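Class prep. Write one:
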Amino acid sequence: MTEEKFNEYVNAFTDALFRFVLKNVKDVPSAEDIVQESFVRLWETRDKVREGSQKSYLFTIAYRLVIDRARRLRHSSGVEVETIGRPGPSEGYSDLGQTLSRALDGIKEEWRSLIMLRDWEGYSYEEIAAITGASISGVKVGIFRARTELRRRLGPIDDII
């Protein structure tokens, strides 16, 4: 990979990669660090990455860095990450996007990543399996469980709208 080609990949994939990471880590400086580290690793292994698989490689690296960060935070704090949950009936819903975001925040990190890769970034099950290192059936089960948990957290549609 040439420097020019690498710069094309940076321009093409940075926004999507940043959105994916930020949605998972909820911290702009950490998201920026993870995106930068993903591109550094792409450059360091540029001769080993097959042409056409750079985007998948970047998301794989970012996914693993997000999971590693979550594990480090969990172990260093010794406390489970607090879930926000759904607002009570008296609070009301100000924004459907906020409601969905709060529900996503409350599910397991691995499930949230699967949902983000499938529903936000549009990856196929096969691509997600390659990114996460899971089997295709494992990806499908994880997405099913994530969606089931989201439905449970969101409650009846009439309560949301």
